[in-house]
């Protein structure tokens, strides 16, 4: 059974598909493979320091318009300070 | 914050199989000494101002060898590390004085010495050490692996100031 759950998450064979949590090694592999990197912290924190080639879309501004520049066919990795 | 962002991307129609959450985040990346962009990119950080080859030994290293290592070393201690360079302890030169040559580092070391993260600002660390009248700090990765020993004197010189 495929489709979407009420909260929008994809359902494949009846199982909700959720984003995968990754660590540093997996992040490096994904970046080598061309993943897009999105820092979701406020702009001032991004301006101070961010991962190379990361773009900034603060969580509070994450909507259909701000994500338009992202390529939906390639992996997207989001990060904040420490996941909290 | 990033788990909510990942979830939000999915609700915006992104394929969940292509959305990843780097949960350890920027703190982990910076603490591992990896490159950064942004206004603080030119700031000297602790991990960039270390002696990366301080005296180190294993738990079973005989005290006689530790003593030899410290002879002629500017470090007043030898760090006890695992094969993966995880810091287990510190043997101070003073602890070797009364030790028998056949003893091992494990028997004379101080376990779990304090460490600082790679990404701590060097200028702040210099001031903190000066305040506590300390000359060095052990710098590790978040996983506890030795990066090196930060010498306050060297960092002060690199910072071009007189923070001592």
What this model shows, in words?
Chain A is an alpha/beta fold and 84 residues long. Chain A has helices at 24-32, 43-48, and strands at residues 3-4, 10-12, 15-16, 20-22, 36-39, 55-56, 76-79. In chain A, a hairpin with a 2-residue loop joins strand 2 and strand 3 (15-16). Chain A is globular. In chain B, helix 6 (122-131) crosses helix 7 (152-159). In chain B, helix 6 links the parallel strand 7 (115-117) and strand 8. With 164 residues, chain B is of the alpha/beta class. Chain B has helices at 2-11, 25-31, 63-70, 93-96, 105-108, 122-131, 152-159; strands at 19-22, 50-51, 56-57, 77-81, 87-92, 110-111, 115-117, 136-140, 146-151. Strand 4 of chain A pairs parallel with strand 1 of chain B, so a sheet runs across the interface.
Q: Helicity range of the residues of chain B?
A: 25-40%
Strand order of the largest sheet of chain B: 2-9-8-7
The N- and C-terminal alpha carbons of chain B lie at a distance of 40 Å
Amino- and carboxy-terminal Cα gap of chain A: 33 Å
Largest sheet of chain B: 4 strands, mixed
Helix content bin of chain A: 10-25%
Q: How many distinct helices of chain A?
A: 2
User: Pairing-aware structural class of the strands and helices of chain B?
Assistant: alpha/beta
Low-confidence stretches of chain B: none
Number of strands of chain A: 7
Query: Whole-number radius of gyration of chain B?
Result: 20 Å
Label the structural class of chain A: alpha/beta
The number of distinct helices of chain B, counting runs of at least 4 residues, comes to 7
The ordered string of helix (H) and strand (E) elements of chain B is HEHEEHEEHHEEHEEH
Oligomer designation: heterodimer
Tell the overall outline of chain B.
Answer: elongated
Gyration radius of chain A, rounded: 14 Å
What's the SSE pattern of chain A?
EEEEHEHEE
